[in-house]
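Form 7-S
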Amino acid sequence: MTQAEQSSFFPEEVPEPTYGVGELTAAVTRAVAAAFPAEVWVRGEIDGLRPANAAGHVYFSLCERNSRRGPTASLGVALFRTERLRVERALADWPGFELADGLEVRLRGRVQHRFGRVQIVMSAVDPVHTLGRLAADRDRVLRALAAEGLLAANSRLVLATAPLHIGVVTSAGSAACADVLAELEASGFAFRVTLADARVQGTGAEASLLRALRALAGLSLDAVVVVRGGGARTDLVTFDSERLARAVAAMAVPVLTGVGHETDTSVIDEVAHVACKTPTACAAFLVERVADALARAEVAWTGVHRRGQGQLVRAEATLGRQAGAVAVRAGGALAGA
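Output:
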């Protein structure tokens, strides 16, 4: 058999193409650009949001979660300075909205492959989607809590007449924490405060707040205070958590809340024993209750003292009359003898 005949049975293998790194990267970049020639809308949860860098750019990830263990899909997002300023101007009409970790958003941007990864170059965000989703979730949670009778569970507990041992759940060192401690200290009353440090915003805030409540649940307290300073409505989303609301409803002592500004209302406000407008107002409520208890005690002691003095005077008068009568009888008896 000739060599040509042998080759027909064993054809030569065609070598597989081998790309250079730059060549393959360029091909992927072109493929992504061809697949997404225009900007797209994408929704997901913000994670790893950092402040603008020295160049004015902001970077974060957009995640999709199917469990609490972590994101099941993640996409990098770049918000460059020019677009960031444009987005900030647009959001000025939505004072209740700010980008924050843990927030679900719908944003628009250009899909690109760069530095070996696919990312979105953001150009706009839809606040209506986020705020509408937050409102819908809040209504769902409130309906579920109401159906189980949990909205009034904590309010049925009896608050101590003079609540002096207080558990405080907030971020240690925050303005809210400082306001509460300063108000209690300025009262001059013997408040004992147990501080449970917790994150109050962003990824991990819900779990942190739940741990703080569990830690205080094992202590002998008169009341627990949950406070957080003001911010955008989206900053307070953690306090609309169903798990957090259930934890507050299950506490064995009254829970007072002071979350956000005077106009803010969160789900945990609805399940709390008392919902105050601000952290300072929360502390002031406790101070006023102790002051009222002290005032009532002083009035009661004054009444006891007055009644005691009256009884003493009457007893002295009675004793005087009886002593006089005894003296008269004794004198008569001696004269007759």
